[in-house]
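Final report, Chapter 2: Outcomes

The project's central promise was a pipeline that accepts a single protein chain and returns its three-dimensional structure in a standardized token representation, suitable for archiving and comparison. That pipeline is now operational. To close this chapter, we reproduce one record exactly as it appears in the project archive, with the input sequence first and the structure output second.
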Amino acid sequence: MADEMADRNEGLRLVTKFMTGLFEESQKGYEPIIVRHIPTSLTKEFEEKVVKPCYSHLGEPLGASWTRTIEDLMLKAIEMQKKQKEEKKK
């Protein structure tokens, strides 16, 4: 019983720490994004062909490289949309 209670308290501590971290990041202007249901084969190929070649030279942990990759892709997509809208106006 005492072990179960200790496990439950540790679980609550970890969840609280995680939620506090998300809140602190959101206060800094960052949003946590959770991506689900992506085929493993696609994520592995993306990591091998995009993330590692483009960002591994920065010496960041792989998770940080993924974050930087996704952020860069989002910015590029926004720029592409802006250019397409400008071209349509011409």
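Archive annotation: The chain has a mean pLDDT of 85.
This record, like all others produced under the grant, will remain available to the consortium after the project formally closes.
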